[in-house]
């Protein structure tokens, strides 16, 4: 692919996990990439190989002013942005009551406000181009949440709802929006990146404690392969597809089926009462 026809990607949180895998695969296909990291040297190995097609910038997505600056510079780099991936994020583990206000704020700022800052900064650019694809990383917790992931799952659920609205708003303007919904994948998500609640309340041991135990047991053994996840995202883009949701991993496909069946069962049980409340 010539540099004129290659796509230009902007991906947040490229130091590890999905972001790092995506970065590598995007560059391998010959596309160009503006990768954001928090530690400036995080992608030095890739930078030496892809001097022409990779730009690395430091960005903390919670800093709205910095997002504006970085996005403006990114759009100026090669004159447009084709694929924007809101990947940066982390989990906060603990009962809603156990998390401190500061922890809750930081989690919402990163997982919800961060992607929102990026979306709102890139939308004027994509609207002017009349093209572009926004990809927001969601999570299995949005399908039905776990005890112990309330704040994190809540942030991702709000991101899902906003993304659905944005998708409807910008579809007539030539812009696509997709939510990527991964199950457990072998990244740094439940090791280095996971933040544990400041508080500890023994009443939550049987619920949140059990979920924490599950995460501990699957750490390093998650069924999802981030290399394959990145390949699926790249393929979706190269095929010109834009589903509302791209689920990744068998865990999540089974969870969707179960959630749908439970919703249907509950709807059937309550339907008569629901419809009887109309005038
Ligand atoms: N892996 C899973 O099982 C899983 C499942 C569902 C959803 N997800 C989602 O997938 C996305 C990527 O996570 P991952 O699994 O690849 O985990 P990861 O390996 O821990 O990567 C997370 C990335 O986000 C960056 N980041 C965190 N806070 C940031 C901030 N305030 N500003 C900028 N960058 C920030 C990290 O940067 P540093 O290196 O500087 O910390 C890192 O690059 C997240 O949105 C996560 O919620 C993951």
Distance between the termini: 60 Å
Number of strands: 9
CATH class: Alpha Beta
- Uncertain segments: none
Principal-axis shape equals globular
CATH superfamily: NAD(P)-binding Rossmann-like Domain
**Helix/strand order, N-terminal first:** EHEHEHEEHEHEEHHEH
Please state roughly what percent of the residues sit in beta strands, choosing from under 5%, 5-15%, 15-25%, 25-35%, 35-45% or over 45%.
5-15%
Secondary-structure content class: alpha/beta
Number of distinct helices: 8
Report helical residue fraction. Answer: 40-55%
Give the cofactors and ligands: NADP nicotinamide-adenine-dinucleotide phosphate
Here the CATH topology equals: Rossmann fold
Largest sheet: 7 strands, parallel
**What is the alpha-carbon Rg in Å?**
20 Å
Task: Average the pLDDT over all residues and give the rounded result.
Answer: 97
Order of strands in the sheet with most strands: 3-2-1-4-6-7-9
Tally of domains: 1
CATH architecture type: 3-Layer(aba) Sandwich
């Amino acid at each position: 692919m010539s540099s004129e026809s290659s796509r230009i990607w902007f991906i947040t949180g490229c130091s590890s996990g999905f972001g790092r895998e995506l970065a590598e695969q995007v560059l391998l296909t010959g596309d160009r990439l503006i990768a954001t990291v928090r530690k400036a040297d995080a992608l030095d190995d890739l930078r030496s190989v892809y001097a022409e097609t990779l730009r690395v910038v430091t960005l903390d997505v919670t800093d709205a002013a910095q997002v504006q600056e970085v996005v403006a510079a990114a759009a100026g780099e090669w004159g447009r942005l084709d694929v924007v991936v809101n990947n940066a994020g982390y989990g906060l583990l603990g009962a809603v009551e156990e998390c401190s206000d500061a922890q809750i704020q930081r989690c919402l700022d990163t997982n919800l406000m961060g992607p929102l800052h990026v979306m709102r900064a890139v939308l004027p650019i994509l609207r002017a181009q009349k093209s572009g694809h926004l990809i927001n990383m969601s999570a299995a917790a949005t399908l039905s949440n776990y005890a112990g992931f309330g704040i994190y799952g809540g942030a991702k659920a709000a991101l899902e709802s906003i993304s659905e609205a944005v998708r409807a708003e910008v579809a007539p303007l030539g812009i696509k929006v997709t939510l990527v919904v991964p199950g457990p994948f072998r990244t740094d998500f439940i090791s280095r990146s996971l933040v544990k609640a400041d508080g500890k309340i023994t009443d939550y041991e049987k619920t949140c404690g059990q979920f924490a135990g599950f995460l501990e047991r699957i750490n390093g053994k998650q069924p999802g392969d981030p290399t394959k996840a990145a390949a699926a995202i790249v393929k979706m883009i190269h095929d010109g597809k834009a589903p509302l949701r791209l689920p990744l991993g068998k865990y999540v496909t089974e969870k969707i089926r179960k959630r749908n069946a439970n919703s249907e069962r509950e709807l059937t049980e309550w339907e008569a009462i629901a419809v009887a409340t109309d005038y």
